[in-house]
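#structure-requests
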Amino acid sequence: MIFLFLLPEKFGELLSILWIAATIFLAITCALFFHFHSDIQLKRVVFRFLTIVYGCGYLMVGFMMMGASRWFLLFGSGVMLIIYFNLRHTEFCKACGKTTFERPFTNKVNCCIKCGAQLAQ
């Protein structure tokens, strides 16, 4: 009775709950880290690493749900495009550490919104 959650019928439900809980926990901790931490080099490294890891995680879950199909190809292309835009259009201010997100296909942001310092080109 104690190990009822280990039955194969319940395993998928448990895995889904764990995935959602872990995603919410990581989102909260990452938001707090990027908001309060001021070391720009560490922010850049952590941001790139987490963007790629999260993208690979969603690709893995998508493959497990859809298998090798046309829908997975479309889903995977979308995930890769989102990863590219996140890596390409995120800047960190060297003066105050603010994270600045540019919108794709619009004018490039040249200065920090918080302190007004020039951003690296």
